[in-house]
Amino acid sequence: MSSRIEQLIDELEEYIESCKPKFMSNSEIIVNKDEIDELLRELRMKTPDEIKRYQKIISNKEAILNDARAKAEALINETNIKTNELISEHEIMQQAYAQANEVVSMASKQAQDILDKATIEANELKMQAARYTEEQLAGLENIILSAIQSASGHYENLLGSLNQYKDVIQANRQALQPMDDLEDTVGAAGSGSGIDLI
Q1: Quick check: 26 pLDDT over 60?
Q2: Which of 17, 132, 193, 198 counts the most CB atoms within 10 A of its CB?
Q3: Nearest CA to 73 among 27, 30, 104, 42?
Q4: With helix as H, strand as E and coil as C, how does 41-83 read?
Q5: How far apart are the first and last CA of the chain?
Q6: Is residue 195 in a domain?
Q7: What residues make up the domain containing 181?
Q8: How many domains does the chain have?
Q9: Can you spell out the DSSP letters for 123-153?
Q10: Other residues' Cβ atoms within 10 Å of the Cβ of residue 131
């Protein structure tokens, strides 16, 4: 089952895919700032909940170890009861000692095995939770960096386009300048000779 963070990342990707491309561009898109802000805000709010969930998994390590200790103590208590019963019988005193030592040894080994296994499993859960959280945070960081780079590129492209339009307008005005000078010259000549210009 995917987490809410994964769902939000999927929604961000789907939203970016659904955005209209910028005019005359294959790599730039037009985004709605409010929608992006809302998705990022929810992602920021959900991240602590996901981390708490994995901290809870890690805290289960203690529960696993306590359960293992309880089982070990139960085995040792059962062994002690059996040992006391065997020792109380004189005719099998030597046999009772041997069996008791063997049972205690086996119980101790089983208890140690349970503790070792529980510790390994708890550490594995902790590593998986930390790895998953790191992957999710890295993915979120990449999305945010990509959004920042995209916005920066859009801004630079806009400035470049405006500068090009400015250059074209200046060139057109300069091209019209000789025409203005010519009209001034013709107008002056016409008024001096008595010829009316239409």
Answers
A1: yes
A2: 132
A3: 104
A4: HHHHHHHHHHHHHHHHHHHHHHHHHHHHHHHHHHHHHHHHHHH
A5: 84
A6: no
A7: 4-187
A8: 1
A9: HHHHHHHHHHHHHHHHHHHHHHHHHHHHHHH
A10: 11
